[in-house]
Amino acid sequence: MNAIVAEWIEKAEGDFNSAQRELRARRKPNFDAACFHSQQCAEKYFKAFLVSRRVEPPLTHNLFELHRLCLKHDGTFEMIQPSVEALNVFAVVVRYPGMSAKKEDARFAVRAMFQVRDLVRPKIK
């Protein structure tokens, strides 16, 4: 595994841990942050996968675009389409006034994050 792929994974794991920590927090949980970090974890795992396949990932937060690129290299990515749909909205929406995530939103996002990570991580070389 090259150093850039390893760095993408390290950053993805940071988001993975942050999302879970915010969901589990007993005092002042930040469900918006749990949702955002869940989306970020998926985004970074997609980018790690692409780099591992010698594809320069685009500068985007759009999980649909990244997922489509990953599908070109591995058809099993189709299995996580529902997770991509669930997470894509959290790239921006929860960071601004007008929408605040509830605990159930955060649980949903963290579950989707696990599904993406569980599929993608073993495929990264």
Secondary structure: elements and pairs:
Blueprint: H1 3-24, H2 31-52, H3 63-71, H4 81-88, H5 103-120
Helix pairs in contact: 1-2, 1-5, 2-3, 2-5, 4-5
Return the CATH class.
Mainly Alpha
The percentage helix is 55-70%
Low-pLDDT windows of residues: none
Stated plainly, the CATH topology is called Four Helix Bundle (Hemerythrin (Met), subunit A)
The rough form would be described as globular
Helix-strand sequence: HHHHH
Average residue-wise pLDDT: 97
What count of domains describes the coordinates?
A: 1
Give me the secondary-structure category: mainly alpha
Q: What is the CATH homology-level superfamily?
A: Nucleotidyltransferases  domain 2
Integer-rounded radius of gyration:
14 Å
* Total of DSSP H or I helical runs spanning 4+ residues: 5
In the CATH hierarchy, the architecture is Up-down Bundle
Q: What is the straight-line distance between the termini?
A: 5 Å
Please provide the count of β strands: 0
What does the largest sheet look like?
Answer: none
Describe the structure.
The chain is an all-alpha fold and 125 residues long. It has one domain: Four Helix Bundle (Hemerythrin (Met), subunit A). It has helices at residues 3-24, 31-52, 63-71, 81-88, 103-120. The longest helix has 22 residues, at 3-24.
Question: Which keywords apply here?
Answer:
5 helices, 63% helix, Four Helix Bundle (Hemerythrin (Met), subunit A), mainly alpha, globular, 125 residues
